[in-house]
Amino acid sequence: MVIAGTFLTVFITICRDLIQGTAKHYKLPLIGLVAAMIAVMLEVTEVYRVVSMSGIFIATGLVVLLVVTLIQTMDRISELTRIARERDLTPEEQAERKALREEYLADWRRSTIDVLENTYIDHGDGRITKLPKKKR
To answer: Which residues of 55-84 are buried (b: 16+ CB within 10 A; e: fewer)?
Structure first.
């Protein structure tokens, strides 16, 4: 019931923003959010039928949402860079660009670390070991 209420609230908000024209700057995240919510709804209905499928729908929606958010962040950084070529950025725009760059780099580092922490080496002789951490 909570998931259905959340989905309905998000859907109504998206429709309102699209009608009012305020969603033009964040259409991609909206698409990702809708995909994630649909995935959650599908997962909820499928969990009783096929238990092994339960994580796939949520993971797919979350990956779509992550990619869309990264694309939006990169687009805004690019837009601020284009503006900076035409004129000096205001202090607010400079702060926003700096924050977006830091957020993007932090997300990239976090995802890279997650990939490396979940990487295993197959030695070919039947041994599979976790990728060792780099010594500093």
So the answer is: eebeebbeebbeebbbebbeebbeebeeee
pTM of structure: 0.47
| Residue 58, amino acid | I
Give 42-83 as a DSSP string: HHHHHTTT-GGGHHHHHHHHHHHHHHHHHHHHHHHHHHHHHH
Residue 3 in tokens:
């998931």
> Dihedral through CA 68, CA 71, CA 77, CA 78, nearest 10?
-140
Q: Which residue has the higher pLDDT, 113 or 94?
A: 94
Q: CB count, 10 Å around CB of 123?
A: 8
